[in-house]
């Protein structure tokens, strides 16, 4: 069986009983970074498990190897570095392969940073668009331009290395929409969690100069 297991995005108290049971009982854990998952198991007080690296640079051969192990009756758990597997990580390839092979799959839901950001944003989320990480170069400008006429709430991730650039570019592209709401979420569920509600017209002048450029960012842009 393949278990898709969500893990905490910060606060360890967010792990569910089902997730803990799966991590304890499985044969091995398929993860992005074995160091990150190893640290999580240690913090939870779990015994060591076989950790199988699976990230964006992993070739298709590893997927085949995992499927073979599943076919031979092993119980593998798929996790990401934090949150829900398959979101901005290559986990979907393993899930798809397991389904094609007739392997039993279960999902154990839990934390997700972008859903947490949407929930705390106070913006309408009956409909929303999730963009993952914005493109670094190719199609970046066109992606930002497409937000000008977006009538749904938009949510995306950003790294501390690019957050200032992205906020400045947003204000440039949306300069004729100064009252459009923007919520900056930093280090969700962690000790230094920060939620800043602002708008396009004031973010660069008022919020950016005092923004702590550390940790993980999730940006929520209100609808047009």
Primary descriptors:
2 domains, elongated, Cobalt-precorrin-4 Transmethylase, domain 1, 224 residues, five-stranded parallel sheet, alpha/beta, Methyltransferase, Cobalt-precorrin-4 Transmethylase, Domain 2, 8 helices
Question: What do you see in this structure?
Answer:
This protein has helices spanning 17-25, 34-44, 60-71, 91-100, 113-121, 140-146, 163-173, 203-207, and strands at 2-5, 28-31, 50-53, 76-78, 105-108, 128-133, 153-158, 181-186, 194-199, 217-221. With 224 residues, the protein is an alpha/beta fold. The protein folds into 2 domains: 2-108, Cobalt-precorrin-4 Transmethylase, domain 1 (3-Layer(aba) Sandwich); 113-221, Tetrapyrrole methylase, C-terminal domain (Methyltransferase, Cobalt-precorrin-4 Transmethylase, Domain 2), CATH 3.30.950. The strands form 2 sheets. The chain has a 5-stranded parallel β-sheet, with helices on both faces. It has a 5-stranded mixed β-sheet with strand order 6-7-10-8-9, with helices on one face. Helix 2 (34-44) links the parallel strand 2 and strand 3. Helix 3 (60-71) crosses helix 4. 29% of the residues are buried.
Quickly describe the structure.
This protein has 224 residues and is α/β, with parallel strands linked by helices.
Q: Which percent range fits the helix content? A: 25-40%
Secondary structure tally, helices:
8
CATH superfamily of the largest domain: Tetrapyrrole methylase, C-terminal domain
CATH architecture of the largest domain: 2-Layer Sandwich
When the domains are counted, the total is 2
Structural class: alpha/beta
In total, how many beta strands? 10
Radius of gyration: 19 Å
Unreliable parts:
none
**Distance between the terminal alpha carbons, to the nearest Å?**
44 Å
CATH topology of the largest domain: Methyltransferase, Cobalt-precorrin-4 Transmethylase, Domain 2
Major sheet attributes: 5 strands, parallel
Mean pLDDT comes to: 95
Strands side by side in the biggest sheet: 3-2-4-1-5
Beta-strand content bin = 15-25%
Assigned CATH class of the largest domain: Alpha Beta
The helix/strand series, from N terminus to C terminus, equals EHEHEHEHEHEHEHEEHE
The coarse overall form would be: elongated
